[in-house]
TrEMBL record:
This is Acyl-CoA dehydrogenase. Keywords: FAD, Flavoprotein, Oxidoreductase. It comes from the Bacteria. Belongs to the acyl-CoA dehydrogenase family. InterPro entries: Acyl-CoA_dehydrogenase, Acyl-CoA_Oxase/DH_mid-dom, Acyl-CoA_Oxase/DH_mid-dom_sf, AcylCo_DH-like_C, AcylCo_DH/oxidase_C, AcylCoA_DH/ox_N, AcylCoA_DH/ox_N_sf, AcylCoA_DH/oxidase_NM_dom_sf. Pfam families: Acyl-CoA_dh_1, Acyl-CoA_dh_M, Acyl-CoA_dh_N. Its cofactor is FAD. Coiled coil: none annotated. Residues 8-122 form the Acyl-CoA dehydrogenase/oxidase N-terminal domain. It comes from Blastomonas fulva. Residues 127-203 form the Acyl-CoA oxidase/dehydrogenase middle domain. Homodimer.
Amino acid sequence: MSHLSAAEVDAIAAKVERFVREVIAPYEQDPRCGSHGPSEELVHEMRRLARAAGVMTPHILPDGRHLTQAQTAIVLQKSGLSPLGPVACNTAAPDEGNMYLLGKVGSPEQKARFLNQLVSGESRSAFFMTEPSEEGGAGSDPSMMRTTAKLDGNHWVINGRKAFITGAEGAKVGIVMAKSEDGACMFLVDLPDPAIRIERVLDTIDSSMPGGHAIIAIDNLRVPADQMLGQSGEGFKYAQVRLSPARLSHCMRWWGAASRAHEIASDYACRRHAFGKPLVDHEGVGFMLAENLIDLKQAELMIAWCAGVLDTGELGTVESSMTKVAVSEALMRVADRCVQVMGGKGVSGDTIVEQVFREIRAFRIYDGPTEVHKWSLAKKIKRDHKHATEGAAA
């Protein structure tokens, strides 16, 4: 972890903000932004600009040190000011989470082979965990995993199907989850591989992530034993190492997008006149914008609180669940109000407001739907009550 001063972190964040606002935001109307995310050509173009500006992978320092979670929050919020910002600056999912996991669990050889190309922004990655629901595979409940891994000499042979795999099309590095006799495992693979076949890329409500979200078939994928990430049977533990900060990173990035949508809606409300005065002077509109400020500040404070917990070394599963629920729901309200304030303009593609609305609607499901996190928290309440009751009785 870094020992940068607050002023040094603020300087990095300010540099990222200038780059995203001045260089990347104009690309939002680029025809290379499609329904399955920006094209590979556009990704490489924006990343060349990010390298030239000195903002490539800004949360990881040149000497390999990672900013603390609290510091990362400040930087990633700025990268999220445009839906294209995280892609350009290499702070986007799934790469940001995969880099974090590899940094924590990968061997020196694995880091040299797989992590370095991700940190440099030369390659993208994919995380193969979720499986098709119609086949009874793992989704919000990863224990339902059906993809298998069997040892054959010095190779693991993997078979199964995966679903909603973000960025698989065009990725160079893959992390595949499968179940061995010991339990869940993770494997590092070079992509593309003929044994990993993209059946189709789904048409989804969101459109910010390169490669979209794919259905994948894995047929007799052979992975050398030294490409297992960590130990056999420890995959679920590693998944939590990745997912707790990854949930928080989603909150950071989409906070930036929602705050920009609020800026656009506020500007519109102050400029647009109706019934003899600016829209902002009508209580129905002004109050919505005021509520946006409240939700944005509360979300920002939740992010900072959860980041502080993770920086203590705690796994932060409970805190990240609470933060993911609170922030995703708050930002959904912000995005919805922005659309409403702007009326017809808000549902058009003339600004990013309608895209932010779509993206955050998807965010309420990705990395665990709100209801799954609430269910998990309710189970904790029950456990805590049981322990307190038993302790009192003793």
